[in-house]
Amino acid sequence: MIFSLNMSSETPIYVQIRNQIVLGIGRGELLPGEPLPTVRQLAEDIGINNMTVNKAYQILKAEGYIVIDRRRGAKVAEVQKSDTEFKEALKDKMELAAAEAKAHGMDFAEFLKLCEGAYEK
After folding, report:
1. What CATH code is carried by the domain that includes residue 63?
2. How far apart are CA 116 and CA 121, in angstroms?
3. Which of 4, 8, 36, 77 has the fewest CB within 10 Å, making it most exposed?
């Protein structure tokens, strides 16, 4: 997987790494059981501090996207069923996205079309 990070973005690098991995999983580019680069290797490849990658991996682990074994490293977790907590958090994000769309004059049909396109991707 190739990471596309913006070093001048206001979004922290560890969040960008987290988001890129989640996108890779959601798009089927990263499959369950697939190994991820080691913290050290990914940090070296990107040219950042190990702690930044470690923070992203710990968040991904806490969210259930990856599993980490000291001997085998990090791997993509098996597909998980959405639970109530996840659905509530997603609902909050969707409400914010909808509010931002409305604030920019987007109509409902256009917003739904964007949502469908993002989901299909």
Report:
1. 1.10.10.10
2. 9
3. 8
